[in-house]
Design a protein that fits this description.
6 helices; seven-stranded mixed sheet; TolA/TonB C-terminal domain
């Protein structure tokens, strides 16, 4: 008998641990094809008829998103000219952006626009000698506080293992397969998935089980706060489903 698998939820990137188990039931009870209304292959799934323009984005880095970034470790501005000071300030701002990459991945253009409008003018750096990491962390904390007044990232409304059972074939139990399926999800303005991208996989069957579950997940959509009202927007999110042997 196949059975739903319990999970442990970990904050931020929703990481879920499912243990393999069962009673030797038939594997064919677990549907492996794309669900009704969806199409795709081993890496990409999309909702048939939905607007998927730009939904399969590369969000691995700020550069891939079209947001300029910099891997600044330390910078000296001793005796710098005004032009060099301006460059140092801009590079430091870019590095603060890199520290916020998970937020940028939710909606790069909106978050970048809000950053430049509300955060960048408040970053004033007079001393970049030595280790700048503590300074970056402080500005990261302040930036999150500021941006949260104007943008809310998508939040899950359904829970895997409870609202959406995960059923694993018993035939995989003795293989003691462990690892994570890492999925990027594009959401529409209603918080409904329209595309899935498998970023990392663990096993062909488990990958598809995890992706099928994502098609049933629902989110409170991301929204922009303006003038006391909120406007929902399409966005992206990521989820990690980790499988492992029981015990």
């Amino acid at each position: 008998m196949n059975r739903p698998i319990p999970f442990i939820a970990i904050p931020l990137v929703a990481a879920l641990l499912f243990t393999l188990g069962g009673c030797g039931g038939p594997e064919e009870h677990v549907p492996l094809e794309t669900p009704k209304g969806w199409a795709g292959n081993t890496t990409y799934w999309w909702q048939i008829g939905a607007d998927t323009t730009g939904a399969f984005r590369d969000l691995t880095s700020l550069e891939a998103m079209g947001v300029e970034g910099s891997h600044l470790l330390s910078m000296s501005i001793d005796g710098a000219s005004p032009q060099e000071m301006e460059l140092a300030q801009r590079k430091f701002n870019q590095y603060v952006k890199e520290s916020l990459i998970e937020l940028f991945r939710n909606e790069p253009e909106i978050v970048d626009s809000l950053f430049e409008r509300y955060v960048a003018p408040r970053i004033q750096v007079d001393d970049l000698d030595g280790d700048v990491q503590p300074l970056i962390k402080e500005h990261q904390r302040r930036a999150y506080q500021i941006l949260s007044r104007h943008f809310r990232y998508p939040r899950t409304l359904t829970r895997l293992g409870e609202d959406i059972p995960i059923v694993v074939p018993d035939s995989l139990r003795e293989q003691e397969i462990s690892g994570a399926v890492f999925i990027q999800i594009a959401l529409n303005k209603e918080g409904v998935p329209v595309t899935l991208t498998r970023l990392e996989g663990v096993h062909p069957v488990l990958d598809r089980i995890a992706m099928r579950a994502m098609t049933e997940m629902r989110w409170q959509p991301a929204f922009v706060l303006r003038g006391g009202s909120s406007k929902p927007t399409r966005s992206w999110t990521r989820m990690k489903v980790r499988f492992g042997p029981q015990g």
